[in-house]
Amino acid sequence: MVTSPESATDRRVRRTRRALQEALLALMAEKGYDAVTVADLIERADVGRSTFYNHYADKADLLDDCLDGLRAMIGPGPAPDAGRGVPDRLLGFSLPFLRHAGEQRPLARAMTDRAKATPLLGHVERVLVEAIRAELPSGTAGPVPVEAVLHYVAGTFLALLTWWLNDEKTHHTPEQIDQIFRALVTPGLRAVIG
Amino acid sequence: MVTSPESATDRRVRRTRRALQEALLALMAEKGYDAVTVADLIERADVGRSTFYNHYADKADLLDDCLDGLRAMIGPGPAPDAGRGVPDRLLGFSLPFLRHAGEQRPLARAMTDRAKATPLLGHVERVLVEAIRAELPSGTAGPVPVEAVLHYVAGTFLALLTWWLNDEKTHHTPEQIDQIFRALVTPGLRAVIG
DNA sequence: CCATCAATGGACAGCGAGTTCAGCAAGGAG
DNA sequence: CTCCTTGCTGAACTCGCTGTCCATTGATGG
pTM of the predicted model, to two decimals? Predict the structure, then answer.
C-alpha cells in the first residue's frame, strides 16, 4: 500500500478508470447521458461488469469523476487557456468555457440538453455560481440579494450556452456568444451592484 | 360514436384521466418526477395497470397532459388572475406565474429541481420563449439575435424561479421576486432592443 | 520471486416498463 | 328500460437494466 493521496496507485486502476471515463464521455456524445447503460460502458471500455462496480457505485458516480476537469477549468485561476490579452475583466470564465464547449460540441450538447434531463446542468450551475461569487465585489447591499444576482448571471450564461449549442441555423463563434452574454448581462449587473 | 372533439366523451374516461393526473402531481410533489413509477401511479389513482396504458403511452405522456393548464396560464391572454391593475407592461406572465408557483410550492419545487432532472424545465422554457416572443416588439435588428434575447429572458426567469423555490433561508414574496426579475432583466433588454 | 490485490465473467435476485387477453361492468343511444 | 358498445380489470408474462457475489486468474510492486 503506497498510501498516496487517495488515488491511482496501481497502474491497472488508472487504466481501468481512464477507459471507463472515456467510454462514458464518448457514449454521452452519441446517445445522451441517460441512454447510456452500464452494459454499454463496460463493453466500450472492455472491462468486466464487476470491475465497474469495484470502482464506482453507479453511473452518476462515474460522471462525477469525469467532471473534475471541468471544475478545474472554471474554478480557480483566470482560466488556463485564456489566450490573447489579459482576462482581468469580470466574468473571466466565459470565453474559455465557450471555446472549450465549442471544441467538444457533441459532448457539450449532450450535457446541456434539457429534454434529455442530464443531472449535469445542476453541477455546472453550482460551479458557475461559486466562480461568479468569487469574482463579484462582496459589498453589494442593494434591494436585490447577492444570491439572486449570482443565479441570474449563471442562469443567463447557461441559457445562452444551451441555445448556442442546439442552434442549427446560425453558426456563431465562441467570441460572439461571449459578446452577447456580456451585452445582455452587464447592464443588469451595473444597475444592481456598483 | 359521438365524434366529439377528440376528448372525454365517456365519463369513465374523464374520471380515470383526472385520477391519474392528480396522482402524478401529488406523487411528484412528494418524491419528484423520476422517482414516480407506473406502479405508484396506478395504486394512488386506484386504477388497473392496463388501464393506464390504455390512456397514455408512458409517464412522460401523462406529464404532457398535465401541462396543458400551465400552458394556458402563460400562453395567450394577459394571464387569467392578473389581479390588481392592468398588466399591460412587458413580461406580463411573470407575476401570475410566480404567484401560482408560490401557492403550489412543493410541486413547483419538484418541477424545477435540477438535481432530479425533470424533463419539465425544457417544456416550461419552450412555453416561456414563445410567450416572450409574442410580447417583444418584432423589429429588433441589433447585433444581438432575437433568439438569444428570448432565451436570455426565459433563462433568467427560470434561474430566479428555481433559486427562489429552493431557498430555505430568506422568504421572499412573489411580488419581490417579480421586482428582482425586472430589475435585472430590463436594463439588458433596453440596451439591446429599442 | 512471491504475496497481494485487481480484474474476470458468469450467475443471480430484484425491480420497473410495457404487453396481452379473457371477462366484467358501466355508460349511452334508442 | 334495454341492449350493445366501450372502457376497466387484474393477473401473468417478457424484457432489459441494475447491483451483488464469488471462485479463479493474472498482473504488479516490493
Answer: 0.86
**Closest Cα of chain B to A127: distance in Å?**
14
- Which residues of A sit within 8 Å Cβ distance of B? 34, 114-119, 121-122, 125, 143-145, 147-149, 151-152, 154-156, 158-160, 162-163, 167, 170, 179-180, 183-188, 190-192
Q: Cell numbers at residue B140, please?
A: 429588433
For A39, what's the count of Cα atoms within 13 Å in the CB-facing half-sphere?
Answer: 1
Domain segments of chain A: what residues?
Answer: 11-65, 68-192
CATH topology (fold) of B11-65:
Arc Repressor Mutant, subunit A (1.10.10)
Residue among B114, B147, B188 minimizing CB distance to A187: B188
Condensed to tens digits (0 to 9), the pLDDT of residues B95-147 reads 999 999 999 999 999 988 877 767 888 888 998 999 999 888 766 667 889 99
Please, are residues B87 and B31 in contact by the beta-carbon 8 Å criterion? no
